[in-house]
């Protein structure tokens, strides 16, 4: 049986990895500060929670477009999004462990913030996978 050759995406260069890690750090900082504000304004409860999770969708798409313009080539979106979300997740893990007051003093508020951030990480990776599969 003959196989159809497919183009293999090239691995990210060190410069790309560093660029995407910097984007991940900046994205995490912006998201963390915004979530801190949303929590202080009690916008993570009731109907606001649905709005917050829904707003994560266009923000995630915007972040993927930014990754593309920052140098992710065809077939590299999933790897690039992986570096961005890996960096953001590592920073959030450090913040939850050592800067507990970032999202608030109450455990419920902290889990609200962590839930939104994990949702965003999952969406980012899912959309990047779709981007690579559909758009190349």
Q: Describe it for me?
A:
The chain is an all-alpha fold and 136 residues long. It has one domain (15-135). 74% of the residues lie in helices and 0% in strands. It is built from four helices and no strands. The protein has helices at 14-40, 47-69, 77-98, 107-135. Helix 1 crosses helix 3, helix 1 packs across helix 4 (107-135) and helix 3 (77-98) packs antiparallel against helix 4. It is elongated. The relative contact order is 0.18.
Question: What's the number of extended β-strand segments?
Answer: 0
Q: Helix and strand succession? A: HHHH
The biggest sheet, with number of strands, parallel, antiparallel or mixed sense and barrel status, is: none
> What's the N-to-C terminus distance?
25 Å
Mean pLDDT equals 88
Helix share of residues? over 70%
Q: What fraction of residues sit in β-strands?
A: under 5%
Structure keywords:
mainly alpha; 136 residues; 0% strand; 74% helix
